[in-house]
Amino acid sequence: MIAYKQKMELKPKKDWYADYADDRNQDLLEPNLTWEDKVVKILHMARCRELTEYNNKLGCSVPTRFCGFNIAFFDLDKESEGVPWKPVDKIPDPPYCWLADSVNVIAIKVAESDRDYPISVFGTVLARDQYDYRCVYLFKRGRDDPQVITSKDDTLTLMGPYRALAVSDSMYFEFHLKIKGEGDVDEDLSKGYLEHSAIRHWKQPMTRSLYSCLSTVELVYTPVPSAMEASFAVSILKGPSNSIGKVTAWTTGNEDNKIDLYKKKVADVGGRGPVRGLVAVPVDEELVLRVSIFKGCEHEHDKSFQLVIGPAIDDCLVGLEPYELRVKISWRGVMNRRGPNSWGRPNMWWRLGTDDLLLL
Known about the structure:
mainly beta, disordered N terminus, DUF6598, DUF6598 domain-containing protein
């Protein structure tokens, strides 16, 4: 009953595109718009119409991909490139004035499915942040490599983000997940996007639900104020173990919301290669890592190491007989965008009447 009421509260009184088109048609009447400006606005409207589909869960038509700004010429499929986040020792004082907020994604799960479990899930979940609004993949699997979800408690195995996300206002999470069917017949499981507002969404953790297609998908994440990017690699230097079994992370100011960054598959023995991870950490807190070691080939946790690491540490050794681990870590500040070249690239915006046009 509660879930039903939540869905009803989300149901708009009118289709999204109908309202949006009414507003944009009024924009076209602006007296100062050139013919070229009007063409760009119409191209944007046409792209939004292509991205709008009927949502059977909400009972109306809504956009299934990001279209918060004018996307007349924006490539929605282009991946984000590496960003020049600054080393923390290069950030001017006070750091709060220079650092953007971020988020840590804790889990993505299929909370409700119209198809009986187990289901084989493939497709993408991605983030678009304020650095460039391009694709930063959190989950990406092809049809030949689906993840089997056996219950509502299973979480998708995340592959990213590969860099810390930056948000001073809003960012977006975009979902396009399918269920692998018999033969060549697949079904849309989840399709749409969720917006995170750095101004409105500060609950720890945040749980946002996307109602679409055949499912309710839940996104669980924690907002991170004035963020540093902690990118690390953990290696076993000595000991009888085959591999690292699990790596969990949290920050000293948020011990209740732990992130499982890595879990070794029971059938995957592997070797001693480094396990890598990335966490956004508030500038006034430290990173906590808990590393569990597999015992031989029995796949049982033998020993666990817990390390508290601050931005002054970039390399550390820790021993607990008969093991020795090494953690190498890089600390960078997630910089606010101040001026056209503050993020190392030209301005990506063009002001068009009442619209912000994305140029990338």
